[in-house]
Amino acid sequence: MSAATIVEAPMPLVAGVDVGGTKTEAVLLDARGAELSRARVSTRTGPAGVVGSVADAVAAARRAAGPTGRGGLLRAVGVGVPGAVDAATGTVGRAVNLDVEDLDLARRLEAALGCAVVVDNDVNLAAVGLARSRRPSTPSLAFLNLGTGMGAGVVLDGTLLRGTRGAAGEIGHLCFDPRGPRCGCGMTGCLELYASGSGLLRASGGVPVAEVFARAERGEPRSSAIAARFSTALAEAVRVLAQAYDPAVIALGGGVFASERLFLPRVRRVIGEWEASSTFVRSLRIGERLTVVEATSAVAATGAALWAAEIAASTAAGSAPALRR
Ligand SMILES: [Zn+2]
Question: Which of 22, 180, 187, 209 has the highest CB neighbour number within 10 Å of its CB?
Answer without folding.
Answer: 209
